[in-house]
Amino acid sequence: MSNQDNKMQLPTEGDISGRDLGNEELTLLHEVLKTGILWSVRGKYVHRFEEEFSARYGMKYAYACTSGSAAVHLAIAAIDPNPGDEVITTSITDMGALTTIMYQGAIPIFCDVDPDSYNVTAETIEKRITNRTKAVIVTHLFGIPCEMKPIVELCKARNIPLIEDCAQALDATYEGKVVGTFGNISTFSFQQGKHMTTGEGGMVMTNDPELARRMFLFINKAWGYGDPNPDHYFLALNYRMNEVTAAVGIAQLAKLSGVVKRRRATAARFIEKISNIPGVKPQKAPKNSSPVYWKFCVNIDESTAKTSLNDIAKSMKENGIFAAPRYIGKPSFECKVLRDKVTMGNSSWPFTDLSRKGLPPVDYDRKNFPGTTKALSQVLVIPWNEFYTDAHVDYIADNLRKAIMGGKKL
Q: Structure pTM?
């Protein structure tokens, strides 16, 4: 019998097989369409989505927007950096969380990561703080929380605003507290593959009324809706979510707890199944945390496994498991837009802003990021889904084992 005959079809977030979409969404969509109001300024569903989201996490303010990237842009705009200011962030993240920094005239300053968790730490952040640091962004990568206590203490001691990027970590907890409630601002994504989806969409949260006001305005082209004498107060965009998207979001939010519960259960089974495979360790999480497994990542020691990460991924893909070696392949700062500073025309702004005259060049040299280099050299990213059964989990574990052993039984 061929590998093709033995191949198991896995649920995937790319279609309905791995997305919890159904009558609940259809009912709310029908309600929206019956009103004929798809614009959030006159509708009620975006506001309802925001209220239910903020209530879920016990936060005072939540604002819906068009994407996770838009959410990060809102956070940076609320902090309001001057041209040439610096925002510390992670070297392993999606580009949508980085270009928004430059659009607001600030410069991404990358800090290294722990090579086993792939997350930034208070120690790596502190090394990058300068007198131009305007904010710190922490990303809870793959649904694994950062070690937040020392990070919060550091930012408070230095009086630096802390932004949590929770795009991959909806409902993850650290020390019994949900991520997104530690920093000054938190950002979320509802893109197709996230724990809850509206196709595209995002949310920001804060308890700070001044930051909330800035984000509300930035969503609305800085037009002061509801003000006695509204005006366009500053340079801003239109990042409004529409009523149709919000209707799907409301239904999805109600399902989030179940999605997370199922992902945690299957992840626990997988961890047990791979516990004795040589050279394999799950992505490290803080002991006092509860991850939510956007993807399931394993560290592969190629010398112990005696086969390459690429060959392991190839073997798994041949069996229908679309595992990705090295995630983004290279540190974010080596992408062309940052490496060659391809920004506004040929100006390389904000890197060339006059306020930075006399300062040393921004450090994007890989040799200064050993944790990042090691993390990307050993990580295998395995798709994870709330509709996996025990049989699916066992199939993935068995194929990982076979790939590690070069097709031999362990």
A: 0.95
